[in-house]
Amino acid sequence: METVSVAKSSFVWRLFRALLILGAVLLGLIAFALWYMGIWSVIFPSTHHDTRPPELPAAVGSPAVLVFSKTNQFRHTESIERGTEVLSSIAQRREWGYVHTENGAVFNAEQLQRFDVVVFLNATGDMLSDEQEMAFQNWVEAGGGWFGIHAAGDGSHTGWRWYMEQLLGALFTAHILGPQFQVATVITEDGLHPLAEGLPAAWEHNEEWYSWEQSPRGSGFHVIATVDEGTYTPLQNFMGQSRDLSMGDHPIYWARCVGKGRAVYSALGHNADAYDNPPMRQLLDNALRWAINGEGQACDL
To answer: CB-based contacts of 224: which residues, under 8 Å, 6+ apart?
Structure first.
């Protein structure tokens, strides 16, 4: 009997140890999957703020574009890679200066003054310290230009009140899910505005469509383009639940004057192939040229 009891105890211990190992492996696989899909950074966002400014080229050029793609939450890796390529090619074609960094310490008065427009290319999360945020605010209000792309308008920026109220003007609700990416029709609402130059009156685009609690229209923002909700399914289907994300009036591209500066935002640009859609290329070029304000005109929407 004692031999049987010892053997049984040994079997139970081996089984328990095997279950522990299996559990650890499963947790590791789940963690890897969350990391691979970018969800880990949403659940456990970083709050790291850079303190040492990057070294900039001795001669940046003028006008100059600063592309900033730091991600302290979800990272659109492929989109950032393709977006920087396309933005760089636009700057090269226009003979503008161009710098790309993910170092938030570049947001200081001395270095910002070397640029005419700052692009937040899918930048997410708590990216900047209070001092860096204030340096950027002062720079914009003194005449700098800002261009936010896609995730620059998601829900990870709510801790920065000035940014939310003055640059975005809309609180992110959610994006479509199930399917996550759908082709829909974009309607160019104000075809006479420089931000709409060369854009078709209506055009197709495959996107992870964002929705907001309210339209930025009427809050000092000028809507350039909307998405036709009748051309896609504005639902978020998740774990058996369906959420209606329709807005009715659904802007996806808008702008405003901020002090002496200019701000423009486009919700397009989740996937890398978005940057190869000809109207999207035109939109990027328009937004950069308008935000740079090369003619030195007062902002007037």
So the answer is: 188, 189, 190, 193, 195, 196, 253, 254, 255
pLDDT in tens, 247-276: 999 999 999 999 999 999 999 999 999 999
Rounded CA-CA distance 236/243 in Å is 5
- Rounded to 5 degrees, φ, ψ at 64 are -130, 145
Instruction: Provide the 3-class DSSP secondary structure of residue 79.
Output: helix
Please provide the average confidence, as pLDDT, over all residues in the chain. Answer: 91
pLDDT band at 244 (very low <50, low <70, confident <90, very high): very high
- Looking at the structure of the chain, the number of domains it has is 2
d(C-alpha 169, C-alpha 153), whole Å: 9
Model pTM score: 0.87
**3-state DSSP assignment of residue 279:** helix
**Burial track 172-194 (b if 16+ CB lie within 10 A, e otherwise):** bebbbeeeebbebebbbbbeebe
Report pLDDT digits (tens) over 92-107.
Answer: 999 999 999 999 999 9
Range of the domain at 11: 2-37
12 shares a domain with 99: no
Please report whether residue 13 resides in a domain: yes
190 closest CA partner among 232, 265, 246, 253: 253
Cβ atoms within 10 Å of 27's Cβ, excluding its own: 10
pLDDT-based confidence at residue 34 (cuts at 50, 70, 90): very low
Select from 184, 75, 178, 60 the least CA-distant residue to 124: 75
Pairing of strands 97-101, 64-68: parallel
pLDDT of residue 7: 59
Same domain membership, residue 15 and residue 129 = no
Together in a domain, 82 and 22: no
Distance, CA of 249 to CA of 227 (rounded, Å): 8
Question: Does the structure show a pLDDT above 70 at 22?
Answer: no
SS3 136: helix
Q: Which residues contact 42 (CB under 8 A, 6 or more apart)?
A: 73, 74
